[in-house]
Amino acid sequence: MQVNHAIPLFEYLQAWPGIQYVHQSNPQPYRKAELEAIIGPLCDGVDDELGFAPGAGLVSESISGLYADVMPGQVGVFAGAQEATFCVMQAVLNKGDKVVVITPVYSPLVFTAEQIGCDVVAVALERAECWTLNLEALRLAMQGCAMLVINFPHNPTGAMIDLSTLESIVSLCDEVGCWLLSDEVFRGLEYDASLRLPGAVEQYDKGLSIGVMSKAFAMPAIRVGWLCSQNQRVLRDAKRVKSHLSINNSLFDEQIVARVLPHANTIWQRNVALVQKNLTVLERYLSAEKARFHFIPPQAGCCCFPILKCRDAAEYSVLLAEQKQLGVRRQLG
Ligand SMILES: Cc1ncc(COP(=O)(O)O)c(C=O)c1O
């Protein structure tokens, strides 16, 4: 098959009539009516004036309620997880610092550290029955590091670690004295709720837990994320960085968040049910395509990472598009 590599794959697929290219690493976003069935009319309790949120306080209590052992004063509120990650990395990292990440990795977790001038070192998850973190490899990589970045439930594999592995990670961080940045944006989407981990912030005085409304809560339209830390200086410095970005959050968004988060369990259950339903369809497909894929089923979150054995994702994507839209490709010339 001829693949026109001159056209980036994204544009190529966009050009097919009838194909809506949607890339989202979140469950199907909530519809307004669906959410209203849980919290009541969306605008109830929303200020008439659509202003900025006050600098502190409005949602920190409901965010702290997502954890067993986090105080409202340990919560910083940001315009998304992306902003929280950027701000906290800017606040605690310096040029030349060593940062360890676990790969494959959601790339902004690497780029921000690289832009600061950090030396980013990767430790790969190992492929076995399930994705596995090699703690000895991690220990070796972490010598002299300033920050370890973890992300469980993991994007893109859907891997989880258990509590004893998290405790071992915390011990490794403690030995080195490094920050533990824990991207917990999919926390709540464990297929077996007993796998849910405490926040890194609850386990370690240098633990930094990041969460957001867009992922486990499936509400990307509500642009609120958070950073939880036991360290007041870090929270203050991260907020200072935010003052160069979004400055204040949206009052409207935060007022909705304060009403949504007390229903976290209901919302997570809806999302897990959707993800599992879709996963059944995907697994049926992948088991028929065993020759093409190596697949380790996810344990949590809404991402998984089938590995294409032929290693040419562009060609395979075009093949799929052609199977669905035979004849249309010719229009691309
Ligand atoms: C692992 C992970 N962390 C953080 C984010 C950022 O979330 P947001 O864009 O809602 O801030 C994403 C978004 O895809 C993600 O997948």
CATH homologous superfamily grouping of the domain at 36-264: Type I PLP-dependent aspartate aminotransferase-like (Major domain)
What structural class do helix, strand and pairing data support? Answer: alpha/beta
Q: What is the C-alpha radius of gyration, as a whole number of Å?
A: 21 Å
Question: Architecture of the domain at 36-264, CATH level 2?
Answer: 3-Layer(aba) Sandwich
Number of helices: 12
CATH class of the domain at 36-264: Alpha Beta
Helical content class:
25-40%
Query: Which blocks of ≥5 consecutive residues have pLDDT under 50?
Result: 1-7
CATH topology of the domain at 36-264: Aspartate Aminotransferase, domain 2
Largest sheet: 7 strands, mixed
Count of DSSP strands = 11
How much strand?
5-15%
What is the ordering of alpha helices and beta strands? HHHEHEHEEEHEHEHEEHHHEEH
The neighbouring-strand order within the major sheet is 1-9-8-7-6-2-3
- First and last CA, distance: 14 Å
Describe this structure in words.
By secondary structure, the protein is α/β, with parallel strands linked by helices. It has a domain at 36-264: Aspartate Aminotransferase, domain 2. Helix content is 37%, strand content 13%. It is built from 12 helices and 11 strands. The chain has helices at residues 9-14, 32-39, 60-64, 81-92, 108-116, 135-141, 163-176, 200-203, 232-242, 251-260, 264-288, 313-324, and strands at 75-78, 98-103, 119-124, 126-127, 131-132, 147-150, 179-183, 207-212, 225-229, 293-294, 307-308. A 7-stranded mixed β-sheet has the order 1-9-8-7-6-2-3, with helices on both faces. α7 links the parallel β6 and β7. The chain is globular, with a radius of gyration of 21 Å. It starts with 8 loop residues before the first helix and ends in a 9-residue tail after the last helix. Mean pLDDT is 91; it is low at 1-7. The protein binds pyridoxal-5'-phosphate (PLP). Pyridoxal-5'-phosphate binds at residues 25, 80-82, 106, 151, 155, 183, 185, 212, 214, 225. Pyridoxal-5'-phosphate (PLP) binds at residues 25, 80-82, 106, 151, 155, 183, 185, 212, 214, 225.
